[in-house]
UniProtKB/TrEMBL annotation:
Name of the protein in question: Aspartate aminotransferase
Phylogenetic lineage: Eukaryota, Viridiplantae, Streptophyta, Embryophyta, Tracheophyta
Cofactor needs: pyridoxal 5'-phosphate
Gene Ontology CC annotation, any one: mitochondrion
GO molecular function term, any single one: pyridoxal phosphate binding
PANTHER family in the record: ASPARTATE AMINOTRANSFERASE (PTHR11879), ASPARTATE AMINOTRANSFERASE 3, CHLOROPLASTIC (PTHR11879:SF57)
EC nos: 2.6.1.1
UniProt subunit comment: Homodimer.
GO biological process, one term: response to oxidative stress
Note: In eukaryotes there are cytoplasmic, mitochondrial and chloroplastic isozymes.
Amino acid sequence: MNMSQQSPSPSADRRLSVLARHLELSSSATVESSIVAAPTSGNAGTNSVFSHIVRAPEDPILGVTIAYNKDSSPMKLNLGVGAYRTEEGKPLVLNVVRQAEQLLVNDRSRVKEYLSITGLADFNKLSAKLILGADSPAIQENRVTTVQCLSGTGSLRVGAEFLARHYHQRTIYIPQPTWGNHPKVFTLAGLSVKSYRYYDPATRGLNFQGLLEDLGSAPSGAIVLLHACAHNPTGVDPTIDQWEQIRRLMRSRGLLPFFDSAYQGFASGSLDTDAQSVRMFVADGGEVLVAQSYAKNMGLYGERVGALSIVCRNADVASRVESQLKLVIRPMYSNPPIHGASIVATILKDRNMYREWTLELKAMADRIIRMRQQLFDALRARGTPGDWSHIIKQIGMFTFTGLNSEQVAFMTKEYHIYMTSDGRISMAGLSSRTVPHLADAIHAAVARAR
């Protein structure tokens, strides 16, 4: 037998085994060292793959509350964030909301299953009726598709992404000024944002002629954002006659109205009055988009309850539009939350609860109107320079005071009053107790500037 063909000796086996283990350990060490060197590894030292990221500025509205919370003064007053407060300065949960929640809690048949992509069916039907009117021909003819969204912001975003995908004109005109989140929502959704004149600083009222000129020169088919009522931040709304002129102009130019309805019933105290502008555009048979929020008028801020309704030419188009809205929503947040929408639906479909809601809603609106009058009276009593009648002419949660950023900074430093730098104040944050303090601050800021 040839020696080269013999089996290895036991000592040779041991040597081969040791060599194999050595090679395995070397290979393992190489892999381990490559993991340690990776920038995402927990052992990579102090370096971060996100080291290049700069700190973003605070949101101009929410940042006001952050600054307010850091202030230790007992005199501090937050007039920045748009949330209703009681006369005692406390957040309010409506009695009717607590009743609805109790009913929901006691209903043992309720489960926590996913809603459909479009949301709670009852909520959608009732929301469309609330903004368009129970006797709306558009609803009766099934020309309206409504989807539940994440409050007003989410409704605007879903509508904007739908338009960016399916509408032939990707330019949207927004009022100047407008809510600070509007341009961001529309831009990120894929629309090109332009503005039209709206507010006149000289009169602290509506620049109606400028509005008509700008919309009249907008390209045919452009989208136009309209505040249904209680324009944010100015509190300046067109009259019914002016709304009619806006409607005629927009229809003649083929402009597509996209309403933001954040304050229905909260502005005047009447749900129908605050929906007039929207209903005028629906009544002519044309197409309309409406974003609704229940944050203010039901006090459901943190529940994020809203709806997007699109009024179409006919039922077939509405059905196809809804099918595409589902394709927008599904990869965004899949489907909306159930609790807040259930509260709204419970209230809207019960006659007694609905009536109680309208009474509580009017009480909130009336308190804000009283705060306007009290502030106006306090400034007049102090002889504060200037015409402050715009405070009682404007409507809704906010007043555009006309104060400049230097005056606002002075009021924050000397009087611990917090508001956005453009001089917008939330009337809902005021009370009879704090009106004199604000009036003193405004008087000092204005007198100082002279």
